[in-house]
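pasting for ref
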Amino acid sequence: MSQTAPEIEELIRLLGKLPGLGPRSARRAVLHLARRREQLLQPLATALAEVAEKARPCAICGNVDIGEICNVCADPDRDPSTLCVVEEVGDLWAMERAGAFRGRYHVLGGVLSALDGVGPEELRIPFLVERARAPEVTEVVLALNATVDGQTTAHVIAEALSGADVRVTSLAKGVPVGGELDYLDDGTISAALGARREI
């Protein structure tokens, strides 16, 4: 029988469901929060309550924000001619952290998967095609993961966009910045050789 209060056990159980946190890590996190009640626990509870009440997917791109339209879509300085297609919101946030892309986004919400019964309708592909047909859009960048499902999804999207008057491109694949050949897998080396260019 647990010596911990049921409320604390419930918090540990819920935190343990988060990516990267198992039951032991969640227990340590809850203990840390409980020891720093005023500095961490109470502000965290307030922030969680606010996000739970206000967060929603952007009506345009699918990003998560607190308004109907996210800050990226509402930014007048973004380039409306380029749409970057990503699998999940986390991928959009990673692109934004890099600071290299100044266009607009389209979050699919996953990848096609026959095993999981995920088809184009579940992935917002029809809405992407509609957005790509806008007169200001000239390029759609497919920034999908280099997995079998990711590449299958990229192929289906490219086919779906064949009737639109847009250039369809994908992110380069190969040796990462700072990467050493000795530590790379065969697929990465092959992709890097295939995408080689003059310098």
